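ugh ok so i messed up the first submission bc i forgot one of the chains. this is the corrected input, ALL of the components this time, i swear. 405 residues overall. if the numbers dont match what u have on ur side tell me asap before i send this to the collaborators (the ones from the other lab, u know who)
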Amino acid sequence: MATQDDDNVARIPDPDVEPSPAELAHARRFAELVDKTLSGRTPPAMSADDRALLEVATVIRATHGAVELAASKQRAAVEDALRQAIGASPAGGGSVTPIARAHTRMRRAPWIVAGTTTLVAAAAIAMLWLRTSGGAGRGNPVARRAVPEEWTSRPADSLVGPIARDHAGDAGARIDAIFADRLDGFRTRRLARKGKP
Amino acid sequence: MASEPATTVELELEVEQRLVEEAQQGNLDAMRPILERYAAPLYGTVILPRLGDAASAEEVLRDTLATAVEKIRRFTWQGKTIYPWLRQIAINKVYDVHRQSKRSRRLADAMVHEVAVESDPASHADAQLIADQERRAHRDRIDETMQQLQERYRSAIELRLIQELSREDCARRLGVTIGTFDVLLFRAVRAFRKHFGERAELPATGDT
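and heres the new structure output, hopefully the right one now
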């Protein structure tokens, strides 16, 4: 990147020397930047060289009293500074808290946090203790939805019964019995939902 | 000698001292009149002439005022205005900005140089006096650099940046087209920058 330091050491042409097209374009761009700056609309983005030159122009103007801080900006700076000093949001409204009160709050803050944390921890321990001691005699009741048995997963022992040795090869018949039972349950469920799956 | 009526400056100092003491005792609002009074001279004579960028200058002003409020308990009243203390905070902030931003190294060097030779205004009690003196010192430096420029470059800067005439009026005054005036101003500012940077490399003695 060509810097303003390069620019500084480069020889500045005499006023009567014809400008190159590049210099002409740069000069025009700089003139427009000065225009905008004089009307208080300095663009935020510009090249490093342009910014350096514009800084020089602003230094010259400021030294001759041509640049003043607008009353509104001055008020905002003062208010922001007062709020910033006590760690509040610059955008917040309302009156400013005196330093002493702010310091008091800051001193109390760790105790408030510690107290709140202790209370929450104590409450959690108490709840845990109540649940374990109260639930020990009753077992652990599990919430269960009241649904028909045929909608649930269940063993097929009641359908098949004990398998005698001489009927061990009738697996197909047992499977058919189980299939018929499950199909029955499926139909019931399907009809209960009025045909919706 | 019979007691004389207190001057305006003495009265202002009394009020300022009372406000500072209130602030040091914890009443933050007491700082408001002090900050409102000195924000403009800090911005116009201390910060902006050393930074050259209005947005950065506003930011530095805000930081300066915030630091002042934050550290007001450390300030010791010595019968003088609080302004030199605020000014020193501002100069330190400006110095930080120059150190952090790598752009405009030579201009930054020039500004840092000024910080070194100007940072002892404690011999004056009146803030306005200090601000005026500082403004005069800045202007002398600028004028000194302007004298090193060619006549047409000097005129271009004076017409456009100091008198703030429009480009058309500037071009008419110098008897050139607007395009030619743009080139003149462009070269003039570059030349000013070059001479201002070279000036900063001179020894500090005789520079104040």
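quick check: Chain B has two domains: 8-134, 148-208. that seems consistent at least. Chain B touches chain A through 68 residues (CB under 8 Å).
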